[in-house]
Design goal:
The structure is a homodimer. Chain A is of the alpha/beta class. The first copy, chain A, is built from 17 helices and 17 strands. Chain A is 40% helix and 14% strand.
Chain lengths: 505, 505
């Protein structure tokens, strides 16, 4: 049995105190291999703290391989935890694994999405943390019918390997959709990927050597940052304003010798929710063309527009062939399909298809065929017609309640699409601090500093309105407003938090 | 319109003559962007040759991005084909893509699975070429029911993101199955991958830097070779005999400083179909432990055994924790699921999970849940009970007809599992030559030289018996016997073939 004693006055966060004491017990030989830990509920009750705080401690230990857990079976100490914590002697002849590891930069594999807390940990908390569409709105039955139809129609054929580039009817449908939006692209230039994350990874794998430079919006999507870093690339941030990335400020970095790629999200950028203006789009494409650079245009949420009109994709403004377009069904439909796509200029498309074959041979043909069937049968349009008004309503609820409950010193974006709002906190109030206090009150938010390169700026929160119905949005925003006001009272803040925190998708 | 003239006496293969003349027409400006090419059937009829030969020419042009094709719409010249063939001027400002490419070794992206001909090209030929299970034997209806059950039971939950490491019930099931086979492994050490191809890629990504050395059986699976090469690793072959890799011959290479990994397929090795003896398994694990190396044990076809008993996995013989185990549903069930798994020692498992998150965040939760449902409901066992006797019958048919039709100078393995037979041709008869002549008679085979490192040995064929029922096996083997006998007459051979040929999975 592990005894945990908390010091409420300590600058060390509560969850970290718990994790450290459990680790000390493991490395000190005070627990056995496979020994059970108390449930999060039991330990939270015993210590008189929120269960989420215990979950967070367990999640940290689990990420480090010291403990493992399973719904219904609790949490236990792993054999490798015994071996790796503290003095556990390595088994004779075992490889010293870290000495065999590739020279992948550690920052790429020790933070961000590679180590983020899994949302199931969050239980019944009100979550503004994850940019997930709402599972309650997923078209489950329509998808089931699409799967049934393709299996009945095509039988075993859709259970075999598909071509690495993707299922031809799906590639064709995507090419046509892009053509309808003014993009000059052939179906042979479409590559189906396992989610947009793989699209980013394949482009990086095709283009980046250690020391190459990638320009990104600052702040930006952490999952992309980690991909680029994992290939040893250096990142340079482009500051943003209401019109998106300030392209003029990128000119010098674009001209430097090892700059190869510019990664941007022109629509409803993650995390700022800002949409790049037409003028900026044109300037960016022109900059890339004049410097001979590639642009990766990540249009992850393009169909989720609540008002206004769509601006043309960068790829439609690109006579020079510099732009690689990326999108996904993940946000507009559901993430579990893991189907994204790239539209890349011919010579690069050939390269990407070959790298796709090397990386995982091909994306599930069954899912590709089902996605095609789903879209071709009109289910995607029906789904969007249903969810766009609901998400608009949630956005509006969040706006209304922020105006009511947030202090006058705070400000925020009002996005015309996407799933998040970007909040700027009152001066001297840190996002980390607000996030942890809110979590203690069962409200989860995204810490803005995590999206900034080098985590240099600390005054933003990313709030997703997609996961909760309006009533819970009202409740969560009220609590969050209280927390922010308390932190205004308490500034300057003295409490310091985690390096490995919530959530990055 | 493109005029093609064939020289039947030329040492240049017919398909290559066709491809070269079409490319010349494109680069010479004699065809338009989007211009249609004749169908394979029409051109074959016009030239009086086999349609497969035309398909092969088109496939080569398509791989190079010069043309594109689609079932039902024919084949046409692509815009990028116009631009990249011959003198087509690059559009102003377009990135010179190859100058932006990463320094991935060209050999990794210009051959093997990255460029292999897609099997749909093969139409009604008798195929011994692909190590695919037979789509007619896929349990389509059982899978449909499994998908329906998980969607009804779990609804939107299985359409959301899953944890990067995999769906917990599936990881647990896989861990238990391995435990039943004597492997000491915890479910926290299981990582679900998008097919076994991704398993190989993630292990390589975790371990290999340019210049590191990987030992592989020679011959071996080309898809693995390409992964290792794509990370800049050097490969060293371990010669094989009837007992599998000759471990003594690997000792010197294992001891060299930059050797990190040994990649083997102990059961029904691809392409030789040989199973590694227990003595060799023990010797290999002991060698890795003494040198501090990792072993990647690829057990892609472990459940497809027709007689004899299973030998323990390397991982069950490994007290030192050197072995990473890899398997998949691809061969035993159907490839279209794209679900494989790794079982890796704790510290490496943590690293692999993080790299998985970077590479594609996670494998489709819907497919993982469906696979778990399928197996937990007994459908996998039922499926294996049905297909193992059928594949045994096909193997036996191939054996019988080879004995009848192949010349006495040829020899072959009689595998006790898996899906292929490894043939050694009579001296002076080249696999390339036999493969092309057989293809002219609509029989497709795997050329053994492609599986040998550096393509150094030319006397083997890989014949898969999984794709055809016994009657077509009889017919194909009879034709193949005739071709081999003709080539014995004609040796030494004068005809030379392709560098980019059929098929590597």
């Amino acid at each position: 049995m592990i005894a945990v004693t908390l010091n409420q006055e300590s600058a060390v966060p509560i969850y970290r105190q718990i994790a450290e004491q459990i680790e000390a017990a493991i490395s000190g030989g005070r627990v056995q291999d496979q020994e059970r830990l108390p449930t999060t509920r039991a330990l939270a009750t015993e210590l008189g703290i929120n269960r989420l705080t215990v979950s967070r401690a367990y999640a940290e230990l689990s990420r480090r391989g010291l403990i493992a857990s399973r719904v219904g079976s609790g949490t236990w100490v792993t054999p490798s935890g015994i071996a790796s914590a503290g003095n556990g002697a390595a088994r004779s002849g075992a490889p010293r694994w870290p000495s065999l590891f590739a020279r992948t930069p550690e920052r790429a594999v020790t933070s961000g999405i590679a180590s983020s807390v899994w949302p199931q940990d969050s239980d019944d908390a009100i979550s503004f943390a994850w940019v997930f569409p709402d599972p309650d709105l997923f078209p489950v039955e329509a998808l089931r019918r699409a799967v049934t139809r393709v299996l009945r129609k095509d039988g075993g054929r859709v259970l075999g390997y598909g071509p690495p580039a993707g299922h031809p009817p799906l590639r064709r449908m995507i090419a046509r959709d892009l053509q309808d939006r003014g993009v000059s692209v052939g179906e042979e230039e479409i590559i189906i990927t396992s989610g947009s994350q793989q699209g980013i990874d394949l482009v990086a794998r095709a283009l980046l050597d250690p020391g190459d430079r990638v320009l990104v919006e600052d702040p930006t999507y952490v999952g992309a940052v980690q991909v680029f870093q994992s290939y040893g690339a250096e990142l340079e941030g482009i500051p943003m304003d209401e019109e998106g990335a300030i392209v003029e400020l990128a000119a010098a970095a674009a001209a430097r010798p090892r700059t190869k790629l510019i990664y941007v999200m022109p629509n409803f950028q993650n995390p700022t929710s800002r949409t790049m203006s037409l003028k900026r789009r044109e300037a960016l494409v022109s900059l890339a063309a004049s410097e001979g650079l590639a642009i990766l245009e990540d249009d992850f949420g393009g169909s989720l527009r609540y008002e206004g009109i769509d601006l043309p994709p960068l790829k439609a403004l690109d006579p020079s062939g510099s732009v690689i377009y990326l999108s996904t069904f993940g946000k507009k439909l559901f993430p579990g399909l893991r189907i994204g796509w790239l539209a890349a200029p011919g010579p690069l498309a050939q390269r990407l298809i070959r790298l796709k074959a090397i990386a995982d041979y091909s994306t599930s043909l069954l899912l590709q065929a089902a996605a095609h069937e789903f879209c071709a049968g009109g289910d995607l349009d029906r789904h969007l017609a249903k969810v766009v008004p609901l998400y608009r309503e949630r956005r509006d609820a969040m706006m209304t309640h922020m105006r009511e409950h947030f202090p006058a010193e705070a400000s925020w974006t009002c996005p015309d699409g996407g799933l998040v709002v970007w909040v700027t906190l009152p001066g001297g109030v840190s996002a980390e601090d607000v996030a942890m206090r809110a979590e203690d009150r069962s409200v989860l938010v995204g810490r803005g500093d995590l999206f900034h390169l080098g985590h240099r700026r600390r005054e933003n929160l990313r709030l997703s309105f997609s996961q909760e119905p309006p009533k819970r949005i009202a409740q969560g925003i009220r609590i969050l407003g209280e927390v922010i006001k308390e932190r205004i009272e308490a500034r300057p803040s003295t409490r310091h938090g985690s390096e490995n925190p919530l959530p990055l998708i």
